[in-house]
Design goal:
The chain has about 300 residues and is of the alpha/beta class. It is built from ten helices and 15 strands.
């Protein structure tokens, strides 16, 4: 049995550090690359690597290309202790991203590519795999597959966390399907039309009620929590009617790529060991902060000991 099964995205990232962002028809039209790395990433893949680094048994379910980048991500996940036996190998190029980092302003631009042949279908979700874990984690890359996986897990009484970064016509259904939605701040604002994040979380909670989600613990719904990540400002979590807000930690930022994914991996780790909501946020914030001091997504994953040292 695995502690965490993750259904979602993977990527191979080409990360380039620049003295500033390019600008046509200026002296910044041609720029030297200060530093560059090839680092594996992707929402769910990075979150699972964080869980594995923190001692959890993890399994990845998603589509991987049969090219060199597909081989690279498979090797990297296996090297970091993530089981990939149930990954779907497609006759397509693996997802990749080009990430440009402005070393002066500590900002980034992400350019990505994912072949449509890599879409994971709902009917490809193995019910026995999803229900044989302590927790399921899904992202918003292939929403129908994520909704089916989350619905199967919830029916089996298994908690489901999420990584939701965008809003589509399927987002409300996805938020309703998972038991502990974790949303990026811009996604929560777009979903609810509310810029105040406490009010937005409460609106999202009511949207879940309208979708038929039961909000009291029973055999099919273990937790009543919604969370929003706020970048350097930390994170906010609504536990029933009680709000928890834990500020972020100040660090020397190198690259924010994958910080939200690492946050989710650390959140899952703290949740499964029984931490309180506020302690879950503190632990996840610290893990995300450490990841921001390193170049690359999966390359930025910290250990439990590193997170503990920062918190102390």
């Amino acid at each position: 049995m695995f502690d965490v099964v993750g259904v979602g995205a993977n990527s191979v990232d080409y990360v380039y550090v620049l003295p500033q962002f390019p600008h046509p028809d200026t002296t910044a039209a041609k720029l030297p690359v200060t530093r560059h790395v090839v680092s594996c990433g992707g929402q769910t893949a990075t979150a699972l690597c964080a869980c594995a680094a923190m001692g959890l048994r993890t399994k990845y379910v998603g589509a991987i290309g049969n090219d060199g980048n597909g081989e690279r991500i498979r090797r990297e996940l296996e090297r970091r202790g993530v089981n990939v036996d149930q990954a779907y190998i497609r006759d397509a190029s693996n997802p990749f991203a080009v990430i440009l980092l402005d070393e002066r302003r500590r900002e980034r631009v992400v350019l990505w590519n994912r072949d449509p042949a890599l879409r994971l279908r709902a009917d490809e979700i193995d019910a026995s795999l999803v229900t044989s874990s302590r927790l399921l984690h899904v992202d918003d890359t292939d929403e129908d597959a994520a909704i089916r996986a989350a619905s199967l897990a919830r029916s089996a009484g298994i908690p489901v966390t999420s990584d939701i970064e965008r809003v589509t016509e399927r987002t409300e259904a996805l938020v309703a399907a998972v038991t502990i939605p974790i949303l990026a701040e811009h996604a929560l604002e777009q979903l609810t039309g509310e810029r105040d994040f406490e009010r937005a979380l409460r609106i999202a909670r009511q949207q879940r009620v309208r979708q038929g989600v039961r909000l009291k613990p029973d055999t099919t719904y273990e937790h009543d929590m919604l969370c929003v990540t706020l970048g350097a400002r930390g994170a906010m979590l609504l536990e029933g009617d009680r709000l928890h807000h834990v500020p972020g930690l100040a660090v020397d930022v190198v690259d924010t790529t994958g910080a939200g994914d690492v946050f989710r991996g650390a959140f899952i780790t703290a949740l499964l060991r029984g931490d309180s909501p506020a302690d879950i946020l503190r632990f996840a914030n610290a893990a995300a902060a450490i990841s921001c001091t390193r170049l690359g997504a999966i390359n930025g994953v910290p250990t439990v000991e590193e997170v503990g040292a920062l918190l102390r």
